[in-house]
Design a protein that fits this description.
The complex is a heterodimer of chains A (about 325) and B (about 475). Chain A is an all-alpha fold. Chain A is about 70% helix and about 0% strand. Chain A contains 14 helices and 2 strands, in the order H-H-H-H-H-H-H-E-E-H-H-H-H-H-H-H. Chain A has helices at about 5-15, 15-35, 45-60, 65-85, 90-110, 115-120, 130-135, 160-180, 185-195, 195-200, 205-230, 240-255, 260-280, 290-310; strands at about 145, 150. In chain A, a hairpin with a 2-residue loop joins strand 1 (about 145) and strand 2 (about 150). In chain A, helix 3 (about 45-60) packs across helix 11. Chain A is globular, with a radius of gyration of 20 Å. Chain B is of the alpha+beta class and about 475 residues long. Chain B has 2 domains: about 55-135, Immunoglobulin-like, CATH 2.60.40; about 190-480, ABC transporter involved in vitamin B12 uptake, BtuC (Orthogonal Bundle), CATH 1.10.3470. Chain B contains 13 helices and 9 strands. Chain B has helices spanning about 15-20, 30, 190-220, 225-245, 250-275, 280-305, 330-350, 350-360, 365-370, 375-400, 405-420, 425-445, 455-465; strands at about 55-60, 75-80, 85, 90-95, 100-105, 125-130, 135, 320, 325. In chain B, the strands form 3 sheets. Chain B has a 4-stranded antiparallel β-sheet, with no helix packed on it. In chain B, strands 4-1-7 form a 3-stranded mixed β-sheet, with no helix packed on it. The radius of gyration of chain B is 25 Å and the shape is globular. Chain B starts with 14 loop residues before the first helix and ends in a 13-residue tail after the last helix. Classes of the chains: A mainly alpha (about 325), B alpha+beta (about 475). At the A-B interface, helix 1, helix 4, helix 5, strand 2 and helix 12 of A face helix 6, helix 11 and helix 13 of B.
Chain lengths: ~325, ~475
């Protein structure tokens, strides 16, 4: 067993762009669930819309700022469509509607009828939309080795993407930290604790919930862009499982905390990678094939999610008094 | 390698199987497009490749012109390193390299399945640029060389690589046309009748699967996202009993229903009742059902692989019924489904226990106060719900002509749409809602592409919540 390689692989996951993308998606979900108590089970839909909006408008020749605006606009409209019918209903209706809406986005995106726009189920190829991002890189061509990690400077799964992704995550953390201490954030927390009490203070609960849904969704769509920049836009890899991983990450790190999503994402992906590489090195393929080791990893994730919710719903960093997950 | 490499097992010599085999010619055309993957479970030698900082992957999927996986195609990869790859049972191939650079990927055309040619022979061999730590996908579409639609030029480091985790395989019912649904574009009365029939059958089977979901919600308030896994369990249990144990179909159905009932009972006894006792909140329980769904799905995939499994190997026979054609399996499913649903309705209306169930649904506290053993009723509802879901799963597996690890998950949201439409928590609402959703799904085939037809049903779900959130048969007071 090659310990050094295993360690390097696992440590690489800690700051991989995918980890950053999931952390950012969980930060968005934290605004929905941790701050406001909204049960959004369609975060992958926001991410997929962001990815499509960015990729398709870039392929159409738009500059990167316009493509980003398109992604933000897509997720804003999506949040409005979801929020208008459901934010007045009980929490689990929002859960069913968001999960259904995310599936609608995926099913329409993978439909062969839209092959010209979305590339159907095989998706959009990475190098058709990442040149604008690549061109902004100040790092030049070639690849750089820092410690045991070697990545290309600017292209695809690069140092440039890592820097941008984690700067975005840091900014999002800062935003959540400020929001949690702002009057606006306190109203959101009030809604989470007792909607009727906040309403009786004359606050427009519906509008506050809508603002939270839009803000978290926009952050989700940015996460979707980060997620597809080192790979391709593939609707089937951004389906319901992705939403569930984001939830697991949020609940693992701790909802309603600033750094919970980041810690959750780092733990989630590095432990999953640890299970895979150690499994491949230790378990003979006659006992478990490589595919089965992957599935074993996901089984562990499912069991972890169940145990977390039952025994430690506040996660690693959370405060049990702060967060009472419940339908009111 | 000839396509005979796919292990095509003869059906077991049961009476049902021999009877079905006699008349299979009529439906071959309708079913020709369905993917038939006869891999024995767990024995499939799954290879995969995930790039690490020091390695990179070359991969791709080769499918025949009809969309079936092309098994045993050999590829050679030359460049900074030399290696080779062979496509597996699912048509996928992988190669791991540890040096970046330009590689030349060549398909050995001799090894293509008989009668298959590369759609673009000029693109073979093809040069692929590989970066360490990433996957390079390379697609070699098969088909007529003169096909007008140019294939996407592969060969970039970022071309869609096959999705890594658990997304293998088609989604039954979404990607493959279901039995009895017809292609074509013109809307004729014949097609409408055919689709409506398919819709009624699908709706009945959906009702079987979702009655339990609605009853469980009614009695416990839990939105059970893991209900679909009991549907899958039914389909997979029938597959195991018929194909591995060798039981004839009918007893296998009964055994699968027993397995489903047992799963429901065990779930409530081992998990949900303790959670209710701990006073774990409903939202927490909802997230627990999601964790359970993830766990069970990947357990299924662990043991059965990602491909589709056919419960019955012989192709079903069709019988003309007035202007429409219907397969014997669907007809049996429809009749059994209607009988069972009738029995459930009688149970709920006509028996003492059924009335107690509805009382718990209405107001658990009041029911308990009037001497109803609420926990026993809930246990019963879980057991019945599990049994019905498994029965629905078996017939859905026959209806889709294949079952797989994610069969239930694919229709989970249709089930939620059905019970929400009918009114969450009301058993009869689930029946009405399922029939409407079944009809919408199959009839929407007439106007929108068939791979989008589930989206139509989900749009209805959202519209219902917008306009009448309590559903058709629900009462307005429960929401809000």
């Amino acid at each position: 067993m090659d310990f050094e390689r295993i360690l390097v692989t696992v440590a690489g996951e800690l700051f991989a762009p995918t980890t950053a993308a999931y952390a950012l998606a969980a930060i968005g979900l934290n605004i929905h669930f941790g701050l406001t108590g909204l049960l959004n089970f369609g975060q992958a839909g926001f991410m997929l819309l962001g990815a499509y909006g960015f990729a398709i408008s870039t392929i159409a020749g738009w500059p990167i700022w316009a493509a980003l605006l398109v992604a933000v606009a897509c997720s804003t409209v999506f949040a409005l469509i979801l929020g208008i019918p459901t934010l007045k209903l009980r929490g689990d209706y929002l859960a069913i509607v968001t999960i259904a809406a995310a599936e609608i986005v995926r099913i329409v995106g993978r439909s062969t009828a839209l092959t010209n726009v979305t590339g159907a189920s095989s998706g959009l190829r990475g190098d058709s939309y990442k040149q604008t991002f690549h061109a902004l890189s100040p790092f030049g061509e070639g690849s750089t080795t820092i410690g045991p990690f070697t990545y290309s400077n600017s292209f695809s799964n690069s140092w440039w993407l890592r820097v941008v992704a984690w700067v975005v995550v840091a900014l999002a953390c800062l935003l959540v930290w400020r929001l949690m201490r702002s009057p606006w954030g306190r109203v959101l927390k009030g809604i989470r604790e007792d909607e009727d009490a906040v309403r009786s203070l004359g606050k427009n609960v519906y509008a506050y919930k809508m603002q939270a849904l839009i803000l978290g969704g926009v952050i989700g769509s940015l996460a979707g862009i980060l997620y597809v920049l080192p790979r391709a836009v593939q609707p089937d890899s951004m389906g319901r499982p992705m939403t569930f991983w984001v939830w697991t990450i949020l609940l693992l790190g701790g909802a309603a905390t600033v750094f919970g999503p980041v810690l959750g994402a780092m733990l989630f992906w590095s432990v999953l990678m640890l299970i895979r590489v150690v499994g491949r090195a230790v378990i003979p393929s006659s006992v478990m094939s490589t595919a089965q080791i992957e599935q074993f990893g996901w089984i562990i994730v499912g069991v972890t999610l169940m145990l977390l919710v039952i025994f430690r719903p506040q996660g690693i960093l959370g405060d049990k008094k702060e967060l009472a997950i419940n339908v009111r | 390698m000839p396509p005979a490499a796919i292990p095509r097992r003869r059906p077991t010599a049961s009476r049902t199987a021999t009877r079905r085999r006699s008349g299979l010619t009529g439906v071959l055309l309708a079913l020709g497009a369905l993917v038939v993957l006869l891999a024995p479970p767990a024995a499939a030698e799954a290879t995969s490749c995930s790039p690490t900082p020091t390695t990179a992957c070359l991969s791709g999927t080769i499918r025949t012109a009809d969309g079936d996986p092309a098994v045993g195609v050999e590829l050679s990869i030359t460049g900074p390193e030399e290696t080779s790859a062979v496509t597996g049972e699912d048509g996928r191939w992988f190669a791991e390299v540890s040096a970046a650079g330009a590689y030349e990927v060549a398909v050995d055309e001799e090894t293509l399945p008989a009668g298959e040619t590369l759609r673009d022979p000029a693109a073979n061999p093809r040069t692929v640029t590989v970066t360490l730590g990433s996957s390079a996908g390379t697609l070699f579409p098969l088909g007529e060389p003169s096909a007008p639609s140019a294939p996407p030029a592969g060969g970039s480091p970022d071309a869609p690589a096959p999705p890594g985790d658990g997304e293998v395989g088609l989604e039954p019912g979404l990607d493959a046309p279901t039995q009895g649904s017809t292609g074509g574009s013109a809307i004729t009365w014949g097609r409408v009748a055919q689709q409506a029939t398919a819709g009624i059958i699908f709706g009945t089977l959906l009702a079987l699967a979702s009655v339990g979901l609605s009853l469980i919600f009614g009695t416990t308030g839990l939105s059970n996202f893991a209900h679909a896994e009991m549907v899958t369990l039914g389909g997979l249990a029938a597959y195991v009993f018929v194909q591995i144990v060798g039981v004839p179909l009918l007893p296998a159905v009964l055994l699968a229903v027993l397995v489903g009932a047992l799963a429901g009972w065990v779930q409530d006894a081992g998990m949900w009742k303790p959670l209710r006792k701990r006073r774990v909140g409903l939202t927490q329980q909802l997230i627990v059902t999601i964790g359970l769904a993830i766990t069970v799905q990947y357990v299924f995939q662990f043991f059965f692989g990602g491909g589709s499994l056919r419960i019955v190997r012989a192709n079903p026979t069709t019988i003309p019924l007035g202007p429409v054609f219907i397969t014997t399996q669907s007809l049996i499913g429809l009749v059994v489904g209607l009988l069972v649903l009738g029995a459930v309705a009688y149970f709920l209306v006509g028996t003492r226990t059924g009335r107690a169930t509805r009382a718990v649904s209405d107001n658990p506290a009041l029911a308990a106060a009037s001497g109803i053993a609420v926990d026993r009723i809930i246990r019963l509802v879980w057991t019945i719900g599990g049994a019905l879901a498994a029965l629905g799963g078996v017939f859905l597996g026959l209806y889709f002509n294949a079952t797989s690890w994610n069969m239930g998950a694919t229709i989970l949201l249709l089930m939620f749409a059905a019970v929400t439409l009918g009114g969450l928590g009301t058993a009869f609402g689930a029946l009405v809602g399922s029939l409407v959703i079944g009809l919408v799904v199959e009839l929407s085939n007439l106007v929108i592409p068939s791979d989008m037809r589930y989206a139509g049903a989900l749009v209805i779900l959202i519209l219902v919540l917008l306009l009448r959130p309590q559903g058709i048969l629900g009462r307005a007071e429960r929401i809000g």
